[in-house]
Specification:
77 residues, Alpha-Beta Plaits, four-stranded antiparallel beta sheet
């Protein structure tokens, strides 16, 4: 079952940052959907993978990431 994560990514400063993070999340196995927002410096990710894997993918792209909300609620199939 997929889970929804909201991540804070404070190091985002430009559209290039957004693109790099979107690419990193898109390449992560298990990511169903991701929306990266420069203005709020955050990302909403629906995924079958773990929070640690998502944070790791973002870190590999050169950014820090932290979970904003603990609402990892399972989404209906």
């Amino acid at each position: 079952m997929s889970k929804k994560f909201k991540l804070s990514i404070p190091g985002m400063k430009c559209a290039g940052c957004v693109s790099a993070i979107e690419k990193a999340l898109g390449n992560e196995v298990g990511v169903i959907k991701s929306e990266v927002d420069l203005e709020s410096k955050s990302a909403m990710v629906e995924s079958d993978t773990s929070l640690a894997a998502l944070v790791g993918a973002i870190k590999a792209a050169g950014f820090e990431a932290n979970e904003l909300a603990a609402d990892d609620q399972e989404l209906p199939a």
